[in-house]
Automatic annotation (TrEMBL):
Keywords: Cell membrane, Membrane, Transmembrane, Transmembrane helix, Transport. InterPro entries: Brnchd-chn_aa_trnsp_permease. The chain crosses the membrane at residues 21-43, 63-87, 134-158, 164-183, 190-208, 214-232. It holds the Pfam family AzlC. This is Branched-chain amino acid ABC transporter permease. GO terms for biological process: L-valine transmembrane transport. It is found in: Cell membrane. It comes from Subtercola boreus. The lineage of its organism: Bacteria, Bacillati, Actinomycetota, Actinomycetes, Micrococcales. It is a multi-pass membrane protein. Residues 236-265 are annotated as: Disordered.
Amino acid sequence: MHKNGDVTRTPETSGAARASLAVGIATAAYGVSFGALATAAGLDVWQTCFLSLLMFTGGSQFALVGVIASGGVAAGPSAIASAALLGSRNVIYALRMSPVVGSGWMKRILAAHLTIDESVAVSTAQSTPAAQRLGFWMTGVLVFVGWNITTLVGALIGNLIGDVSAYGLDAAAAAAFLGLLWPRLKHLQAQAVAVAAAVAAALLTPVVAPGLPVIIAATVAVVFGLTNWLGARPATGSTATGSTATGSTATGSTATGRAEGGTPS
């Protein structure tokens, strides 16, 4: 056991640091996609960077620029509603992270900005309070810094490369969310919720205004989730040993695996 500043180095904290570094690098890489997509949707470089700096929730950011790209300025209300709906889950994360963050209003304000899927996932995967605390802060800071740098890079090259879909950058967001979601689909009920929401979104996208499919699909997911008509039965060939508020303790799933292809959400 060694001390490094205020952090006591143990096998647990060392593991948390490695997971944080891996997640930070993997997640930051997708900032390039967001930057390029945002400028392609009509935002300028500074507006794009402003979103990543102050909004800093990748799911909401991708939803916002996606709706704007589909419907222009007229889609503003739907874009805001979609972004707010996706970002609201961070409130639940904050409740879970409150004991980890500790006291002090300055610390809590900063923690509120860094409470995203990745920082919560790495933290809750740790087995000791010290490792949980290190995982949360280190992941949050690394993702924040990396995401903002790569957003700027993406925004700058987005103006140069033209059609981002030709390079597959428009598919990065969907792949990122699938990467975050897939390890959590350990039970039939979770699979039913995911399928119902996906089908609703796919059917509605061609016929309703941009942004509405996200809102309606989320409503369908909530309804299916609350009914719990399949219970907690595991899917065929899958086992689970429990779950946390973020669904991050299923057997065979690690923080790094969950965040591969992830965005700060």
